[in-house]
Amino acid sequence: MFRRSFNRFCAGEEKRVGTRTVFVGNHPVSETEAYIAQKFCDNRIISSKYTLWNFLPKNLFEQFRRIANFYFLIIFLIQVTVDTPTSPITSGLPLFFVITVTAIKQGYEDWLRHRADNEVNKSTVYIIENAKRVKKESEKIKVGDIVEVQADETFPCDLILLSSCTVDGTCYVTTASLDGESNCKTHYAVRDTIELRTVESIDNLRAAIECEQPQSDLYKFVGRINIYSNSLEAVARSLGPENLLLKGATLKNTKKIYGVAVYTGMETKMALNYQGKSQKRSAVEKSINAFLIVYLFILLTKAAICTTLKYVWQSTPYNDEPWYNQKTQKERETWKVLKMFTDFLSFMVLFNFIIPVSMYVTVEMQKFLGSFFISWDNDFYDEEINEGALVNTSDLNEELGQVDYVFTDKTGTLTENSMEFIECCIDGHKYKGVAQETDGLSQTDGPLPYLDRADKNREELFLRALCLCHTVEVKPNDTVDGVTESSELTYMSSSPDEIALVKGAKKYGFTFVGVQNGYMRVENQRKEIEEYELLHTLNFDSVRRRMSVIVKTQSGDILLFCKGADSAVFPRVQNHEIDLIKVHVEHNAMEGYRTLCIAFKEIAPDDYERVNRQLIEAKMALQDREEKMEKVFDEIETDMHLIGATAVEDKLQDQAAETIEALHAAGLKVWVLTGDKMETAKSTCYACRLFQTNTELLELTTKTIEESERKEDRLHELLTEYRKKLLREFPKSTRSLKKAWTEHQEYGLIIDGSTLSLILNSSQDSGSNNYKSIFLQICMKCTAVLCCRMAPLQKAQIVRMVKNLKGSPITLSIGDGANDVSMILESHVGIGIKGKEGRQASRNSDYAVPKFKHLKKLLLAHGHLYYVRIAHLVQYFFYKPLYDAAYLTMYNICFTSLPILAYSLLEQHINIDTLTSDPRLYMKISGNAMLQLGPFLYWTFLAAFEGTVFFFGTYFLFQTTSLDENGKVYGNWTFGTIIFTILVFTVTLKLALDTRFWTWINHLVIWGSLAFYVFFSFFWGGIIWPFLKQQRMYFIFAQMLSSVSIWLTIILLIFVSLSPEMLRIVLRSVRRRSTRSNLSCKKASDSLSTRPSVRPLLLRTFSDESNIF
């Protein structure tokens, strides 16, 4: 009933799906109709995964979804239910250990989340109820409550700003906890509520807010507020992101605000942004699963063979039922097939330890602990922002060592995103330098002191456009009683370009003073304050690539000022005005400057009334508001007059060129994906050495395609021509291609967004539906690719396209802005730069670093070492695959786990300085080289060889039935203990031989593990344990070591088992010396590569120590 009444006040608007209605203060807007409270979620934040009641079942369910855990559970159940040769403890205790450790780790992490949630949910807030400030806990806020927030407090939920302590109803907010932006943002209250600054007046407000349902985009909000007076006449105002105060943001430089809660708890934008992030899996994890399947097949094969051989052996009656071990009647009557099946399960249980259950825990610990080395690396620390590297996920550490393609943004990633105004052009006249006090603008470019200048009125119009067409804010407290010290003005904006342009205008005598009561104030060259009423702001977006403002002068004239990319502005101005400006724009772009074109338009009062009505209608729309506003913007921004253009320099980041060079030398392909125009991006690519002076560029741009009337035909011709050229130059093998880059002519590809759309969306009837495959063939043969004029979605499309190439190459994306988030999430590894465009990129990335230069060490050193360490760990666990229940249980848990964990955290088979100075070492491990079939077979052969030596060496020793002086005969348990002792010492000493980088921790865990084994063996066999039914190991170990023959056998078999490894070390040492000798002879002539700008690097002899196997 009330909804029908509400809709009656909103004439022309039918009931919409996907919106919610919020009553301010939870007061009905009409006293004559009943008010029914709506149900929304409470304001509790729940980031925890478990509760006290569901932790055990939910955690167990999640852990047993892992195939290895489920496998060992099945083995344990078989041991419990079937007569097997080993105790259920052998698989049950390691499984229990793994499950318990993982559960404790996950439970502790969840407890921390519970604690953090309670701190937020129990925090104190003030609600306005019945014209009083009521103190409540944050979790008790309901949608519709009016909340009071004071300075430096965090907003407890998503609020619509109703009023503030300021006269104009504005407040300043920082969103560092949401997107990392530390600069203050200005938010506004609608003009009908800004006077409600007291508790009594705000409580008397009768209004209803209709807005969209909760969604995660931090920068989008669509709604409207209907304010009711005593006459029940609704006044409707539009609401947008500038009116919404987000949970997690902090109120700054404003004493107090009142806001109404529209989204609470898990429906706030902050909560929605931290849910549902996709899980990425590394290539190593996929290899582990493949190895598990292989070893599972080996296990099944061994069990089947042993079962078969058993029944073949038992086919002889004497072997089947000897006189000393007669079968019972029940055994004779057992169904033979069932007996064979149980025997098969028994053999599976006997051999099940070739699949290491503890490997998953060790891998998780290695990844988690290893990630701290990135955070602790002082080389990643940046003094400017006082921050270092950040690891958002530790699951992809080793993937950093497997990257094939690097996709990078340009602005803010390769460049500083620190803009400096260089020059401008007005009506074709170039202005560069600082204005003289006597004559305003001056020309200081070139040898001539004075050149022709534009008309004085046009100069001032251009500078006023720079001062008015922006969203720059002046930092508070700079203006006192209308008097401003211009030199002390501090500008704030989310875009460094805008600040650079405003400062550029200030150099020439026009200073933007700030906004006061809806008027933009500008100080002109005569030190006079000009005021312009700000009527509308047509915001910038990546699709329109321009922004405009509509202002009203003191004389009543209505002007539109527009600035944007040349491709967005030129089609909307008079054709005869373009040529003079275009020359300067193209020249500045070639110099590497960022260019913007400035235009204006005078709007007649009648036209403005129509435009104003259209804008208000579009802003009031709840559905498709952005599309409707874009349509209105498109109609307004036509028939403009071009005034001039600006050139802003974005300096290249420190060591960006050296980093690009190193990545190329490491065999990585670097693609630059940018929204900038081609000339600017190309200049930057040359500056950062992505393109070399001898690089032949292949262009697929609108300019080259438009040479023909039929674009698709011309595109097909170019694609075919480029493919033929590259196929003649390079071999087909992608493995030899990396080396070929430094031996043949280099090629670079340039493509723009419109041509890419033509390739991806080519018509099927054109006979060129293979554009995409030809394009990919060309890209694979080029050393570098530049994609310019790219929309954010196109960046993600390119990454996805490369990910799906044959061979599934590993991709890495790096960027600093919100427009890079899509490609960061799409790639295998996402790197965020902690830049000046906010922290959206670093917040959505897997790793975040302060500068692009840090990518070099992150990949070439950390990535290389992480991959080698974990690959060795995985192979080692499958290599060290048995015996008494206690020994089987302790083997993977205690005897051999700590040395490999320490190795996988600390090993540096090559010095870090060598890894960073010789990028070619990165190619040695590319393509998951250490976990391919060859290394896998080597480790498997090594395990089989050593197992054979262990068994048969001990077997031959036991050909002498008496090994003790008193003639006592040793039995099976001594036989097994000897083998087990040799096994423990061999696999541990094998790791010691593999270790290149020794620390006290390595010494402690390696020699300590061996000492612990000896101690445990004496301890376990030296006591009669009352809980054991059979004391099989009693005094076995001590008695065994009393024999000199056994001592000699153990030492000899360990030496023989390790002989292949020692032989390989000797051969590698000989090869290293040979390489060192050759390098000393060729030192003067050898260099890192034939790339002209790559400096020669001395090849360290450690490069041959890359342990491929």
TrEMBL record:
> Does this UniProt record's set of keywords contain ATP-binding?
yes
In short, the EC number is: 7.6.2.1
Q: Which domain of life is it from?
A: Eukaryota
Ranges for domain P-type ATPase C-terminal come to 843-880, 881-1069
Q: Which UniProt keywords apply?
A: ATP-binding, Cell membrane, Endoplasmic reticulum, Endosome, Lipid transport, Magnesium, Membrane, Metal-binding, Nucleotide-binding, Phosphoprotein, Translocase, Transmembrane, Transmembrane helix, Transport
Q: Which residues form the P-type ATPase A domain?
A: 121-220
Q: Which GO terms describe its molecular function?
A: ATP binding; ATP hydrolysis activity; magnesium ion binding; phosphatidylserine floppase activity
Could you tell me which PROSITE patterns the record lists for this protein? ATPASE_E1_E2 (PS00154)
Q: Where does Mg(2+) bind?
A: 409, 411, 816, 820
Q: Which InterPro entries match?
A: ATPase_P-typ_cyto_dom_N, ATPase_P-typ_P_site, ATPase_P-typ_TM_dom_sf, ATPase_P-typ_transduc_dom_A_sf, ATPase_P-type_domA, HAD-like_sf, HAD_sf, P-type_ATPase_IV
Q: Which cofactor does it need?
A: Mg(2+)
Q: What is this protein called?
A: Phospholipid-transporting ATPase
P-type ATPase N-terminal domain residues are 36-91
Q: Which residues form the active site?
A: 409 (4-aspartylphosphate intermediate)
